């Protein structure tokens, strides 16, 4: 192995160490003392509940583990946005699981909690996956109610989704395992079946304090909305159980008897590991975002038997297009080539940049995959589209529009992995979050913004200096350097994959070796949702 390989490997493993450290902290939720308090009440934590509920030895794909990372610090933080969500297997059935984390602010809803819950529901709806809600929440975090309560994509949208999912025939099962208050009470009761844990579970529109304040009635919470009340008097809940474990066992029994699902019919052969060593990804992939590399080397360590059937390999070389298999599933791959290439005319083309010929090729390839019912995977390491008079005269906007149109109108499921840069319109064309990828994850090396940190900082500096001069202030070269440093530091923080994951612009940050698992489970989930829409690009730029 050469020096460069070893250097990359060291740097990428350092990034992975940081990722694992972050995830370890997140998985403690509100901390060890809060976990101990839940145990004292006879309750399991959100993660313990998921672990008990899901099939032993099965995969669990967490969605939004790093949601709210570094946010709400003035409120003491909100690890994982106070809710654990992900795709898992219960009695052999793939499903979406949503579990409130009572160790984080008693499971109260922050703005990112609402966003994360809606993302979990969106994944369930797109893929027609059954969904299990493990409810244990004090309701809306009142100091921030104006950012959670009234808007279209706020708290209330989840109940609309409950109703829509029910009408779509998507199975919803809920367990009330702690508090379930106010508007939040509708979520389990709008599910197909609602169970409750005796003595620890309670559900009411208003708690005892609010009842006293509103109508003057004195009543304790257990009488007001405990398991006995709702299973034996009101009929609001269906069955009560003596412990978390018994309640979770009951969910497993429900899922054990669910009928089979309709399938989309994506092709799957026997799974094979890549012929090339996946661990070599750490050494091949440069942690320095400026350095070139050959994307073929990355693809060959992600796909089954390292076989990649390339489409138009000698044309539009800054985008690699081709078919392969991942864990047996057929997949169409569109990936940015990051090394400098030369076209037949002898012109050099920069790696990571989308040119007219590569956009034209990708559009046609995307159409072919839709015709053949092959899911799409976008591997992003993109600086943007080519600029300048030559590119403009050659119709770069027209060709870019063609690619965006074909990608946006795709009816086959799309998946996105951001391995490196994700800048500007390149993010859009390569199926960024705005284009409904079924799942979108980042490697620790990812960077997402309108443009690179260096370019943005210099542009912002010029604007700032011009503004200061306009107001009559002279700025010394030393001040200018200091200003550039401050702007660069702020912008670089916003480039971080953790900044993106905290805001759910991506579903998470993963070890590159987890890429195959994400794609395989993603396609398996998508296979629950037959394609009912015809592929139609409308008016396409030619």
From TrEMBL:
It is an enzyme of class 6 (ligase). Gene3D superfamilies: 2-enoyl-CoA Hydratase, Chain A, domain 1 (3.90.226.10). The chain crosses the membrane at residues 167-189. The keyword Transmembrane applies. Keywords: Ligase, Membrane, Transmembrane, Transmembrane helix. It comes from the Bacteria. Residues 12-270 form the CoA carboxyltransferase N-terminal domain. Its EC number is 6.-.-.-. GO terms for molecular function: ligase activity. It holds the Pfam family Carboxyl_trans. Signal peptide: none annotated. Residues 270-533 form the CoA carboxyltransferase C-terminal domain. PANTHER family: ACETYL, PROPIONYL, PYRUVATE, AND GLUTACONYL CARBOXYLASE-RELATED (PTHR22855), METHYLCROTONOYL-COA CARBOXYLASE BETA CHAIN, MITOCHONDRIAL (PTHR22855:SF13). This is Acyl-CoA carboxylase subunit beta. It comes from Fontibacter flavus.
